[in-house]
């Protein structure tokens, strides 16, 4: 029966498809990929479940530009294999990686052949005992789909591009905005470029240029809201739309993994050799020349200073980013160091004291208690420091349950517990708080709260728009922003800002082998 429906669906896709002029049939395009950024400086590990992998037709719902009635959907037979996206975290276990990769390869084997493949990855996955997982993954995909399939890779600008990944892919691009407001636009561009190369019969780009730039910066210093990343990234769009160029991209790279591939990269693809080389070299040079201008997007202080400033401020809500354990960068999300310090402050115990929201800390035991006593009941227990207890033990929380919310994809269950004047958001599993709705659904009102502390780096747009003061706190955790003190052993040296450079690095264009030349070698 399942098979019958599959045939029926393919029939419907066929009936409304544009026929490819070059090949006399609509192109067949697979979709696959895994997305995570994982810190090797965190004791946490990530398992298969965390990827919430989608299979087959369900994958379409992740791509609005491929909705049933979209023009792009009708231009090809799309054959989704497996895609998975996990919250940033610790390194992925080897078992989880192998299982997900093998499932993807099985699906690709079963449903081939393909004219194209949309490879949707983040690019900063770390796997226990395996270097360059995305390079490994695409090489294994290439072995299944063969040398003729055009692969278009879409990435996060915090991903890393190894030479192997650059070689095995044909087209490649990444976001041009951080925060990533253009995430879907980027994936759509990767899909459109892939289709147009197939439909026009132009196929693989004649030239791919890859330039590693010896810069390694935390994302919090490279927001495209401010200079120099703003101008640098604004130059990418015009560079990519020149005649003879297919796409251009700049990767900041990922600072919390200790591998040779972790650094910034510029890539340009196209058919006009001179233009491709020139464009990549201009972008790489521009990046290098602006290196000293990268600073944290908001003033950065040690914790006590941040809290003192927030308490003194007349403007509210005053936001503090609890950066060191930011789960959206790869922190375990359960470091209890900051919350412990907040609950120790006597100001928050006074009935007329300042109000504070803390988002968030995992505490499955407290969640169980909250469910048992219900809204308005009292709980007394411990939270945090199950995964990452290097900086503080579990934090003691005794307070009144204000709300219980079920069903969040990441947190599963969330509760707000009032301790003095502090609303502590306790979750069953870790979850980042990015939107106003994340708070209001718990009955919390960040706009009417004096201080909001979020385990986050730079503020996501909705929170940024409501803040009346903002400091980023250099707190401890798996994504400590003080990267100059991280124990790197394996990244390429010298690396800015860790090392001194006697002379400028070689930023000349490296021509990358075409993917088909690799297979036939
Ligand atoms: Zn990112």
List the helices and strands and how they pair.
Blueprint: H1 2-15, E1 28-35, E2 38-39, E3 45-46, E4 54-55, H2 71-74, E5 77-85, E6 89-92, H3 94-111, E7 116-120, H4 133-145, E8 150-155, H5 163-168, E9 171-174, H6 183-199, E10 207-213, H7 229-234, H8 236-240, E11 245-251, E12 264-270, H9 273-289, E13 300-301, H10 303-312, E14 318-322, H11 337-344, E15 356-362, H12 364-373, E16 378-383, E17 395-408, E18 412-419, E19 422-427, H13 436-440, E20 451-454, H14 461-466, E21 469-473, E22 510-511, H15 515-520
Parallel strand pairs: 1-5, 1-7, 2-6, 3-6, 7-8, 8-9, 13-21, 14-20, 14-21, 15-19, 15-20
Antiparallel strand pairs: 4-5, 10-12, 10-22, 11-12, 16-17, 17-18, 18-19
Helix pairs in contact: 3-4
Bound molecules: zinc ion (ZN).
**Mean of pLDDT:** 93
Unreliable stretches: 1-22
Q: What ligand species are in this complex? A: zinc ion
What shape does the CA trace take? globular
Percentage of residues in DSSP E strands: 15-25%
Number of strands: 22
Read across the widest sheet, the strand sequence of neighbours is 13-21-14-20-15-19-18-17-16
How many helices in DSSP terms?
A: 15
Structural class: alpha/beta
The CA-CA distance between the termini, in Å, is 43 Å
Largest sheet: 9 strands, mixed
Helix share, percent: 25-40%
Q: How large is the radius of gyration?
A: 24 Å
Brief summary of the model shown:
The protein has 15 helices and 22 strands. With 521 residues, it is an alpha/beta fold. The N terminus is likely disordered.
